[in-house]
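We now fix the convention by which a protein and its fold are recorded. Think of the row as the fold of the chain written in a discrete alphabet. Here is one such record, which you should read through line by line.
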Amino acid sequence: QVQLVESGGGLVQAEGSLRLSCAASGRTFSSYTMGWFRQAPGKEREFVATLRGSTVVADSVKGRFTISRDNAKNTVYLEMNRLKPEDTAVYYCAAGINGWTTVNSYAYWGRGTQVTVSS
């Protein structure tokens, strides 16, 4: 069982930056693929980034968002730069043994943190 708690969301102006953190419980954190997803109002949850050895990021955030992890702290991060209003969403952290770029490949989810980007 893995419990995930996101933090770091908030209100930021366009072109600003935020860093999201996701703290995980459990002693097997390093065994899990970690991912970030987001969900805007009225839209489906969509893939943002994942880290399993190498990183994969969605085309919509490529060059602006970076995923990283610190296994010693059981934490995964999402560094978000040059934010755009269309990045506004609830951002979710996810963990899965075989996680990849799809929602159903992750077994554990956090409750999400709101990111709002004003124009």
About this structure: The chain has a mean pLDDT of 95. The two ends are 40 Å apart (CA to CA).
